[in-house]
């Protein structure tokens, strides 16, 4: 099957929470991340086509690298578990330093891609 995505999506090997920075509520867990966005398994009521300020920390060689991003909720789809949904976010703001960290994390040796 041919891959049509513009950016590689790295799977996150452990449960990684995503927090809405405005409400301080955990909205879900990351499924995968690319340079342009991420897939989240959410258990929070989110609004389609809305803008969010999100915080998460990716595992990085025994530690964690923190990210704070502006994101646009592009789509959501009900998951098989009641009250949960798959949610697609597109990153709209991220510092240059964090973008470089994210690129290194995605390209790290041993990464698994979705």
TrEMBL record:
PilZ domain ranges (all copies): 5-107
One Pfam family in the UniProt entry: PilZ
InterPro entries: PilZ_domain (IPR009875)
UniProt cross-references to SUPFAM superfamilies, sorted A to Z: PilZ domain-like
Protein known as: PilZ domain-containing protein
Organism: Agrilutibacter niabensis
